[in-house]
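User:
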Amino acid sequence: MFLMKLPFKKKLRLLFKSHKSINGSRLKKKAIQAIILTACWKIWKTRNEKVFDGKPVNITNLLHDIKSLSFLWAKNRYSVELLACAV
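Assistant: Predicted structure:
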């Protein structure tokens, strides 16, 4: 199996597990995890659009997309209680 050695692999692992160390309910931790995963995915997607398509990066749009996608992802994936706890 081919495994890439990434210099930031340990930092990503810590980031993906960071929601577990947050004080709060299980639902709040799930909301934080959803935001972290959405942000990583959107940043990666934006990076690819810049590298491969030459699209300029607009930080304001990136943050707006992360917020709206996190909300939609959580809304469709989790219960209503999760959204109330995240607000």
